Amino acid sequence: MEKVQVNLRIEKDLIEKVDMLVRQGFFKNRTEAFLVALNRLIKDCLKQFLRKKLDNIRQGTEKYPSPTDVVIKMHEEEE
User: Fold this and answer.
1) In angstroms, rounded to a whole number, what is the distance separating the alpha carbons of residues 67 and 71?
2) Each residue of 10-41: pLDDT tens digit?
3) CA 42 to chain CA centroid, nearest Å
């Protein structure tokens, strides 16, 4: 995958915290720390986006039985 260099201005105390995590062995270097943090941020944002979409889809379907309940009932009837 092609890499692009990004220059950021970040508060000194934040960098000091990242450096401490690197020294403690949580990450190999700053780059790895920032990549992990950025990937987690993106994952969290995508989860929120999907959660909102699902909530919009489900809106108004509260009167219908849940798929889980239907499957359980079907298994109970088979026994």
Assistant:
1) 6
2) 999 999 999 999 999 999 999 999 999 999 99
3) 6
